[in-house]
Write a structure and sequence with these properties.
single chain; 316 residues; two-stranded antiparallel ribbon; 12 helices
Amino acid sequence: MILTGIEYSFFISKSEIQSTIGSATGTFANRDHLAGYLEMALALGIGLMLTMLSNSRNFILNWKQRIREISELLLGSKARLRIILILLCLGLVLTHSRGGNISFFISLGVTGILFLAIARNKPRATTIFLSSLLILDIVVIGSLVGASEVINRLAETSTQTETRDDAYLATYPMLKDYFITGIGAGNYFNVFPSYKTPLLNEYWRHSHNDYLEIMVEQGIIGFSLLAGVVLFSIFTAIQLLRTRRNPFVLGMCFASLMGTFSLLIHSAVDFNLQILANSSVFMIILAIPFICHNLNYKQKGSRRSSMKIDHYHRHE
């Protein structure tokens, strides 16, 4: 729709919403919220791909096995998932969301380094796969479909063109007045007009900063509870990366960490956690490490397979 110029957002012509023309929004009203959703979808897809890389590892080097592996690479489930990941990357770039694209880059880099540094039984192909995501899917393909628009938006960003900083400053007095218990969930737009400065002429339904908005609405009590769950989820995922060998557990913990890091970074400049679709997926991503921790993944022959892999590593 963007390439043809005939753009709709859930059967509504974008001509009625001028600010969204030229950027992918999907069924969201805001391109930044589609970017937040795609960040988490990409994290889950990348984690799934890592489970496939781990499962495909073997040490048979005859020519028949090589032909089978090449055929699987070009025509199998990994190839289909790779195409889906490329499409999701294109969608993220076409949102032209500054916060979304930066969050994706940083979270992929940080999680990738963390995974390579501490994960046990990681395949050799992991480094190549993660590097290709940055180089092929974003740098090469992104430059053809709209990465320059994201770069231009970043270059044009300044304190003169952005009003979010003024909204943040106007929110701080609310935080001081309702620090303990907050004003109640969903009440930001009701209370903020009393604190709004003359510089803010527009109607502000959200603060465009999830940390500030949650603190104002839920107080330090509610914020601490949510922060505790997030930190516990991150800690659990890291512990599983250090101690588990199962490919599925490793891949899903990568997905959880990347999705969590990405939305935490993006939440500093947007309100993804106030959107039901995004907050629901975020809660699922936080739950993944706890599910993996209690998952009985031991199967018949798994111990023997682990012994073979350890034997291979010792001889290598």
